[in-house]
Amino acid sequence: MVTPVPYFYGTNVYFVGDMVYVNGVPYVHASVFHAQAVELAARGAPQAPIHIVVNVEAAAAGTGTEAATVEQLQNEWMPMGTFAVLEDPEATETSIIIQLATNRLGQIAGNVFNMETDEVQPLYGAIDPETQRVAMRVEGRNEIVECGLWNLTQDTLTVLLHIDEHTTEERTFVRLSDPDEEELAP
After folding, report:
1. pTM for this entry
2. Residue 169 maps to which CATH number?
3. pLDDT recorded at residue 180
4. Which residue from 41, 79, 144, 182 lies 20 to 30 Å from 64 (Cα-Cα)?
């Protein structure tokens, strides 16, 4: 079993000058931390489907034990949740809603809905399986949002918004309940 890795920005992940510290230990220069987030988000960028069978011998033999194709893994999405995005963690209203899903390859996909402009923008990103760090980018934008995979299982989480190489801000995601689940609740 994999041990969850929480990312609490400002507590166990923080900046001192141009250095990023993780659990009190110097990790990397802030520009490298930003570059890592950019690269991780790019791993989830939409691509043409890949048609590769992982276990060619089993597929050729028709034994039924062939592994899933990469294309199948890319197309099996599991919802991660719908979140209100708050600039201020004390805010009670927002105009930005984000929906996230992941596949078995660790890619992230979703949509950002701006209620003020009535616009929906796709987003993409990826999960680093080693660090459990998640990075996402709204299509057509330069900013990167990052958080920990474990944090996305929580009802409220702080994410880091990389505006550029030198500027980061925190945002709060608050999980929105599924209306279908509320109807089923006793």
Report:
1. 0.81
2. 2.40.128
3. 58
4. 79
